[in-house]
Design goal:
It is a single chain. This protein is mainly alpha-helical. It has one domain: dinb family like domain (Four Helix Bundle (Hemerythrin (Met), subunit A)). It is built from six helices and no strands. The termini are far apart.
């Protein structure tokens, strides 16, 4: 199997399930209401902030895959939108799932030889480093979301 296919599969699993950790982004947010997503727990980021932050990097990297510039910056990665209704929260999640699926298809279509080339500029690392980073970053923050959910549901 091509490396790009493996990476696409790993990204699919961290977003939608099937990995050996038995934890994925979509399932973690399935029963999260807007109230839960925006509720502050201690000095942690909210579930909404973490969800936006996770997806910010996927979306920004996908833009490069589609021929655009790398315009994302770390300082904006927690600038999540104000959501005022449960419907907006559901739409936000659906957008994340649809864009993740689109990005996964773009990764699958890549040839393996592009993985060692630089994404946008050398300082941002290779395609491989960025794809793997998105997968690892998502796993990391899913753990934070799981902890916040436990605190919220216990209180």
């Amino acid at each position: 199997m091509k490396t790009t296919k493996h990476l696409a599969n790993n990204l699919h699993q961290v977003y939608f399930g099937g990995n050996w950790t038995a934890s994925n982004f979509k399932d973690k947010l399935e029963d999260v209401t807007l109230d839960m997503a925006t509720k502050k727990v201690n000095d942690f980021n909210t579930i909404l902030a973490l969800s936006f932050h996770i997806h910010y990097y996927l979306k920004g990297t996908m833009d490069v895959f589609k021929g655009g510039d790398l315009t994302i910056r770390d300082k904006y990665s927690f600038d999540y939108p104000a959501l005022h209704s449960e419907h907006q929260w559901q739409e936000f999640k659906n957008t994340m799932w649809n864009e993740a699926k689109e990005f996964i298809l773009l990764i699958e279509k890549l040839e393996d030889n592009i993985l060692e080339t630089f994404l946008a500029e050398e300082k941002y690392g290779t395609y491989f480093r960025n794809i793997l980073g998105i997968i690892e970053h998502t796993h990391y923050h899913i753990g934070q979301i799981a902890v916040i959910k436990k605190i919220l549901t216990a209180s």
